[in-house]
Amino acid sequence: MRHSLKEIAAALGAETLGDATLVVDGLAEPGAAGPDDLAMALTPKFADSLAGGRARAAVVWPGANLGALGLEGAIVAPGGRLTLAGVTAMMDHDPAFAGLSGCHPTAVIDPTAEVPADALIGPFVVIGPGVVIGPGARIGAHVSIGPETRIGAGATLHAGVRIAARVRIGARIIAQPGVVIGGDGFSFTTAGPSNVDRAMRQRGDAPLPPPEDGAWHRIHSLGGVEIGDDVGIGANSTVDAGTIRATRIGNGVKIDNLVQVGHNVVLGDDCLLCAQAAIAGSSVLGPRVILGGKAGVADNLSVGRDVVAGGGAVILADVGDGRFVSGHPARPTRDHRAELRALRRLARGD
Amino acid sequence: MRHSLKEIAAALGAETLGDATLVVDGLAEPGAAGPDDLAMALTPKFADSLAGGRARAAVVWPGANLGALGLEGAIVAPGGRLTLAGVTAMMDHDPAFAGLSGCHPTAVIDPTAEVPADALIGPFVVIGPGVVIGPGARIGAHVSIGPETRIGAGATLHAGVRIAARVRIGARIIAQPGVVIGGDGFSFTTAGPSNVDRAMRQRGDAPLPPPEDGAWHRIHSLGGVEIGDDVGIGANSTVDAGTIRATRIGNGVKIDNLVQVGHNVVLGDDCLLCAQAAIAGSSVLGPRVILGGKAGVADNLSVGRDVVAGGGAVILADVGDGRFVSGHPARPTRDHRAELRALRRLARGD
Amino acid sequence: MRHSLKEIAAALGAETLGDATLVVDGLAEPGAAGPDDLAMALTPKFADSLAGGRARAAVVWPGANLGALGLEGAIVAPGGRLTLAGVTAMMDHDPAFAGLSGCHPTAVIDPTAEVPADALIGPFVVIGPGVVIGPGARIGAHVSIGPETRIGAGATLHAGVRIAARVRIGARIIAQPGVVIGGDGFSFTTAGPSNVDRAMRQRGDAPLPPPEDGAWHRIHSLGGVEIGDDVGIGANSTVDAGTIRATRIGNGVKIDNLVQVGHNVVLGDDCLLCAQAAIAGSSVLGPRVILGGKAGVADNLSVGRDVVAGGGAVILADVGDGRFVSGHPARPTRDHRAELRALRRLARGD
Asked: In degrees, to the nearest 5, what angle opens at C-alpha C241 toward C-alphas C240 and C246?
């Protein structure tokens, strides 16, 4: 996207220095920026690479000296990463759907589905009976949407997203390629006590004898999934259907790649789940919970609002509001660190 | 699905209370159930929400009082979650394939493939040369099946499942969207000792110098995959092909989402692998092994029958029959817990 | 593939014993090999199963006695797994693309894309505007390639691979089914300090109060992905686009299944990432780093050349060249093992 510094600054509520009519058509790191790029130099640590490079325009820190940096124009960053959010949004020419217009003739859309005239529907998309798609939706190649599912306005479903039947999604979802929403929950039962029940009960370490009947009986997933507005879901992540009520994801939730959200889970608004995190069946997370990469929550737990779980933390018991936990099993981060230090001293013989 | 209480009770081998001719067309939690739902109230803890709700019919615990609960009819649950399995199976109208009949005209089926007349084949399915599909199979949109693969009777392959060449699958598999079966094993070798070999051998902590030749040479995967009957595989899970013999998955095995099964692995009957579990190349698991979420098994190990590994356990050595292990490295759960307690006391200075 | 022992030995630079004109058409384990198979018996531990089986031909260890093993011909293995690499490569009839020739008529290829005449393009492939595909590429069913992406010579993209816009890939990549390259990075910011910032700063364990504004603002991913030559990527793995410069993967890198490579990451040549490993945003790994299964690297870190991280290791701080680390948090493996031993002794009361 081509914009003048003036246009970008206006959108950010920022000020300009020097020639505000300069037009840029891309973003770059300070040292790699060419004459048509806007160099991103949000802190003074970039001063040398900016001065030594070919950039004519940059986003700079408050107090930066245009001349010393060899720039012809600049935007003064009002606020760190929020500036980065604003600038990247403006400069994104959003190429994923380039070349598409309207509904591709190869798409297979059930006659009972409602697809608005302004939707972009890519090649080989399959939309089942009774589906309702909101206005402005963009649906990439090879996406499949199961019967009776509803998807809100402004949705972006990238190539190969799989949405099963019985799913309700709010406005403006962005689903990266390979996301699966509404697959069956992993819910099975044995006729007698399962090996997990037996192992837990026994506690000691005498080995379990074989059970009388080890067969697993499937509990079907009838509850579907309900997802709020402004949700993002990363590549190849999976959200399972609930058993007799929906798995629920609140507004504003952001989910990274390869994350698992189990059946019946409830995620409060604005939760953030980093890559390879997982939440087992029926656990409930309050709003704004953050799970670091590879963190996990066992089944049937309650995790309060504003909990932060460090990378790799495995939550095995309920966690109260606002707690910061780490380790496996997860415990207060302060305690976890104290234990790591104590163990190190022990091993060294201190 | 619409069923009378009498029909459902007959299928479960259960008794009814009150008006057994009542017809229900969905399942619901006790407090959320409407007048046409069957409320699931398997224990007395649901008494209040049932009595306060609008349900006319419910599955109740033995001894429940119809009148006190405000119900017109009920089914007395013979056995907890097994009841849930039976009721959810009956009430599932199984919408994933709604609107499909026979073979969709867009499917690309090699003329040498055998596809039975009663199979459901969705839009844009690709079936390669020499493939044999069993009777009653249901194959969702965008599934691809590689050359010479065989899939047994009653298979359900949901949208976007990828099955490579050289795969043999038994009857009644259910594969969720995005499953990949038969991709290449992760098998590479270096000309000299690899960095892993060198690091293991050295043991000390002097840093490794660069190797003479760090290039990885691919070992091709010729062995394919063999899967038994009644297997379930969760969304975006992966099962790799064996090297010179098949990777093998026994009958009744259930695999959750985002699970990795490496090349040459052998899984005994009725194993259960929870989300994000992984088994590295050439390890052998006996029947009925349960791996909790995020659990792992290193390569070339033997894990006995009826072993239970807790969530996040990482098995780095052989495990005998019937053992319950936890932690990383996995050890007897009793020992692991004792170590966690000892560490906590140490850090507190007790 | 059918080859004589002589042909195979010539390709490997190996010697033959007995009848070198014997023709084999498959590989097998020594005990399972039939009369047309080449049994793989690289060490003397296979002597009994070879002698007791039906194999007429085998790859054997130096010094093996043809007559005592009941063989008519043999190839003497010059070097362990490198031999396995060579033999499996020769015997692989590479069935994935069997039955395909040229460009399948169902493929949707933008008129501005450059697709060479010798490429194999499978059914329902979608290739966007401005894409350039190198000679000899093989692209499986249902692959989608976004606008302006370039893919080098001899690429193999298996079924259902998703490559977004702004991606540059070198020669001879092999991408297993379900790989996603170039999805959006997981990059969000809050207007004020995030809960992670607040939890880190506080250190104590008083619970966090709710923030004033918990909404996440998206930082767009404009940088794409650059991948070198001879890279392999496993099923359902994901590589995210960079923010303002490309995420970079060096030559010869091998990535297993279900691995996450975050935005802005740089991987040096010949790195090897085992299943379910993950690297968070902006971390830089030197050449030949090996991450064991389930290992992780936190964001914004530097990991030196030839580092080996054991299975499940979680790297939370920079690591110098050539180090061998284990545990969570990752530390020198020698220290980690000493800590495990000390803890075991502590719990036992030794």
From this structure: 130
| A121 Cα to chain B: minimum distance (Å) | 16
Among A3, A93, A217, A263, the one annotated catalytic: A263
Residue type, A252: G
Query: Encoding tokens for residue B72?
Result: 């017109």
Q: Which has the closest alpha carbon to A297: A288, A287, A312? A: A312
Two tokens, residue C36: 């047309």
CB contact under 8 A, C276 and A276: yes
Cα separation, A58 vs A85, whole angstroms: 15
Question: Is pLDDT above 80 for C79?
Answer: no
C-alpha span between B282 and B318 (Å, rounded): 13
Q: Is A132 on the interface with C (CB under 8 A)?
A: no
CB–CB of B27 and A296 under 8 A?
Answer: no
pLDDT at C46: 93
State which amino acid sits at residue A26.
Answer: G
Indicate if C263 belongs to the active site: yes
Give me the residue spans of the domains in chain B. 3-94
Between positions 186 and 215 of A, the ones with CB within 8 A of C are none
Q: What is the CATH number of domain C3-94?
A: 3.40.1390.10
**Alpha carbon distance A218, B81 (integer Å):** 10
CA distance B233 to B240: 13
Cβ–Cβ < 8 Å for A50, A37: no
Whose CA is closest to A44, among A80, A8, A72, A88? A80
| Nearest CB neighbour to A296, from listed B287, B294, B328 | B294
Task: Note whether A160 contacts C: Cβ–Cβ < 8 A.
Answer: yes
Q: Compare all CA atoms of chain B with the CA of C339 and give the residue at the minimum distance.
A: B343
The CA distance from B240 to A291, in Å, is 29
Residues of B forming the active site: 263
In chain B, count H helices and then E strands.
Answer: 5, 38
What does R_g of chain A's alpha carbons equal in angstroms? 25
User: To probe the interface with C, which of B109, B179, B237, B244 has the most C CB atoms within 10 Å?
Assistant: B244
Whether the ipTM is more than 0.95: the answer is yes
pLDDT more than 70, % of chain B: 99
**Around Cβ B3, how many Cβ atoms within 10 Å?**
18
What is the DSSP secondary structure assignment for residue A344, as one 8-state letter? H
Give per-residue pLDDT as tens, C106-157.
999 999 999 999 999 999 999 999 999 999 999 999 999 999 999 999 999 9
Suggest the residue from B216, B221, B273, B336 to mutate for an interface test with chain C (most C CBs closer than 10 A): B216
Helix/strand number for chain C, H first, E second: 5, 38
Tell me how far apart the alpha carbons of residues A57 and B217 are, in angstroms, rounded to a whole number: 47
Residue in A180, A215, A220 closest to B176 by CB: A180
Query: How do residues B112-147 score in pLDDT, each as one tens digit?
Result: 999 999 999 999 999 999 999 999 999 999 999 999
Closest CA of chain A from C249, distance in Å: 18
pLDDT for the residue B202: 81
Assign B205 a pLDDT band (cuts: 50, 70, 90).
low
CA distance C342 to chain B (A): 10
Query: Could you give the strand order of the β-sheet that contains A260-261, starting from the edge strand earlier in sequence?
Result: A108-109, A126-127, A144-145, A162-163, A180-183, A238-240, A260-261, A278-279, A296-297, A314-315
Q: Please report where in the chains the tokens 């309900």 appear, as a residue.
A: A226
pTM: 0.97
DSSP track, B181-244: EEEPP--EE-SS--HHHHHHHH-S-SPPPPPS----EEPP--SBEEE-SS-EE-TT-EEEPBSS
Of residues C163, C244, B113, the one with CA closest to residue A31: C244
Beta carbons of A344 and C335 less than 8 Å apart: yes
Report phi then psi at A348, rounded to 5: -85, -10
Cα–Cα distance for residue pair A155/A146, rounded to 1 Å? 16
